[in-house]
Amino acid sequence: MYSKVVIVLACAALALGGVHKLTGPQLFKAGDKIVGGSPAAAGEIPWQVSLQYTSGFHFCGGSIISETYILTAAHCSTGQTPNGVRVITGTLRTAQPGATYNVATININPDYSSSTFTGDIALWEIRGQIAFDANTAAVPLAQGKAADGTPTLVSGWGTTSAGGSASPVLLRVVVPIYNHAQCESDYAGFGGVPQDQICAGVPEGGVDSCQGDSGGPLYFDGVIHGIVSWGNGCAYAGYPGVYTEVFSWLGWINQVSGV
After folding, report:
1. What is the DSSP string of 88-130?
2. Does 20 participate in catalysis according to the annotation?
3. Among this protein's residues, is 229 annotated catalytic?
């Protein structure tokens, strides 16, 4: 099972991909990209952030939900320390930050399970406040479930395929909400899909989030519905991407962040 995260290897310019995609460890280059997507326009996804090590290595995505909090995945956050990471905002290129922020606290959902991906959600608190402008803004949280077929979008700097190469620019792609019962059936061999998660993609595959996209937003009409979590491979036919459902965790988000 792969999470869609990229973890630094100490002596190489490669990274170990965990796309909670279920085929075991593989090597991925840093900053890989969305599968089947196209470049985002300036200001199109102003809540998108890059989570990086202080060295500047991108390993996960995230979303601004207030002037002080970033919403991301728990599997992007386990093992991280505030002084070892940073948040990049307001840019289409991970190597050209609009602004760089230090992290005060990393709050991981206490119900997170690394084996099932239940509760795969975390909140990073920024030191100071994020400066909002045309390229940097908070995204509203979904107040209900997205209907099957809703043409959501996912964005990030993840791979174009399992094991794909790095992209310097932010990409986005349309992935319709996938019927949960069908997704449960598709993933029966992997233990199914937790009830606090949703699926998005098309049966024939070809569009998906991938390694390096973990923690990033699944959104529709300017509202965030999901957080990139896991899946089997990337854009494989019959295996849509799996996302933590934001609506399922509104109470915890509010308790930690006040949003």
Report:
1. EES-SBTTS-SEEEEEEEEEE-TT--TTT-TT--EEEEESS-P
2. no
3. no
